[in-house]
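Budget justification note: compute hours in this period were largely spent on complex prediction jobs such as the one shown. Inputs:
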Amino acid sequence: MRRRQKHQDDQAEVNMTPMLDIVFILLIFFIVTATFLSEEGIDMRPPQDNPNDPPPDAAPPIVVQVDGDNEIFVNQVRTDVDRVLSAVNRFRAEEPNSAVLLEVYDEAHHGIIVQIWDEMGANGVPISIQRTNEG
Amino acid sequence: MARRASRVNTDEEDVELNMTPMLDVVFILLIFFIVTSVFIKEPGVDTTRPDAVTEEGENPSMLVAVTADNEIWVNRRVYEMNELRGVIEQLLQENPLGKAMIQGDEGANIGLILDVQELLSEMEVEVKISTLQ
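Corresponding output:
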């Protein structure tokens, strides 16, 4: 008699196997669709506008211009893309605190701008970007 | 004899695995994957991105690609500059804290990339320029 009662208790348990199947399928779906996308990039946003005027003793910026034909001028002197850093460093030797202002035409190529930006950033030269409005 | 048969039966039931702890683990994994899954919409084009040394890692949820032909691709479709705001707003509704990344081709016009970047930062989305991995 006792044994029989125990047997009935066992059968009253909920069978979880179908639920486990469903949960597994859901789990596999989410594992497959989860794309942990991690990209690398640089922050090229211009700095926030400072309401205060820059201090009057700030060094004038070194102007690096890139025109529509991807020609680069550092303070009006035409320069090769690989020599921008050395040209900038020459100017910074005289004025160590001067920053670089990148003036770009809309037609300039993205790759060149990123290359210059990255070179300056890697060498600790402060840089900001500005568009040339003429034309 | 009948008694013996029933005894064999109960023995077999005891051998069954207790799946409850496994179910607990599986549930926790399931909830983890549901919570962490962000459905990223790929732009749908390959761009030759410039290489950089000063790059920082980020986990973007919005990808905007600008090709060498100056086409803007979001979620496998080409959009014009004036349509882009609506598209980004839609993406922001799905993921309000999402960060954006611009995948600009080396040959893309910097003007267009700056336009997209200005639009995104105007909408207070954190935006970066994607570089080669």
